[in-house]
Amino acid sequence: MAIVLFHSAYGLRPAVHAAADRLRAAGHEVAVPDLHDGRTAETAEEAMAVREEIGTDELLKRAVAAAAPYSDAGAVYAGFSLGGSLAQNLALADGRARGLLLFHGTSDIADGTVSAVDDLPVQLHVADPDPFESHDWQTAWYLRMQRAGTDPEVFRYPGAGHLFTDPDLPDYDAEAAETAMTRALGFLDELRG
To answer: pLDDT below 70 — which residues of the chain?
Structure first.
C-alpha cells in the first residue's frame, strides 16, 4: 500500500526516515517528500522560522505536488505535526484516499466540510497534554471530522512531549513512540485488508 509521509516543521530528519523504514519493513511503499528543500531545524524556534519563511500556502502546494504520483493508487496520507496537518488536508480532498494517519498534529476543518471518501479511516496519536493540541481543540476536531464523514480513532499518550516519536528531540518518549508505531502498523494492516 502506498503511504505519503510528511515531516514536521523540523524538516526531513532521521526520525522521519526511521519511521518510513519501519513502514517499508511491514510491506508498504512509502514516499517521504522533503517540503523544506533539505533544510532541517534543531529547535522549535528554528522550525517555526523555516515554516514562516516558506509559508503555509507554499507548503500545501509542495505537498500536493509530492503526493500526486501516489493519489491514483489510493494512498494513505500520514504526517508528523505540521505534516499531519498537510496530510489531513490532502486526505479529505482526495476521493481515492485509503486512510489518514496523524502523529502529533491535526488541522482546522471548517463546518460543512465533507470528506471526498465516505467513512475515511483516521488514526491520531497525540501527547496528553499537548501544547499545540489542547483537549478542547481535539474535541472540536473530532466532532468536525465525524461530521465530515471520517471515522477518527484517537490515542493519547500521557506525559509524552509534543513530538514524542523523534529520539533527537527533548519531547522523545521511547515507550509512547513504540506504542504509537505498533498501533499505526495495526491500523495500516486493517486498511490493507
So the answer is: none
Confidence at residue 26, expressed as pLDDT on a 0 to 100 scale: 97
Q: Rounded to two decimals, what is the model's pTM?
A: 0.97
- Between β-strands 76-80 and 120-128, what pairing exists: parallel, antiparallel or unpaired? unpaired
Number of structural domains (the chain) is: 1
**Residue from 72, 104, 80, 108 nearest 92 by CA:** 108
Q: Which three cell numbers stand for residue 30?
A: 512509502
β-pair partners for 163: none
Of 24, 17, 7, 146, the closest CA to residue 78 belongs to 7
Note the pLDDT tens digit of each residue in 62-114. 999 999 999 988 999 999 999 999 999 999 999 999 999 999 999 999 888 99
Helix (H, G, I), strand (E, B) or coil at 41: coil
User: At 89, which CATH number?
Assistant: 3.40.50.1820
- Lookup: cell for 27: 510491506
**Assign residue 192 a region: left if phi > 0, alpha if psi is -120 to 50, beta otherwise?**
alpha
Q: What is the end-to-end Cα distance of the chain in Å, rounded?
A: 10
Query: Which residue range is the domain that position 132 belongs to?
Result: 2-192
What is the rounded CA–CA span in Å between residue 82 and residue 100?
14
Enter the DSSP assignment of 87.
H
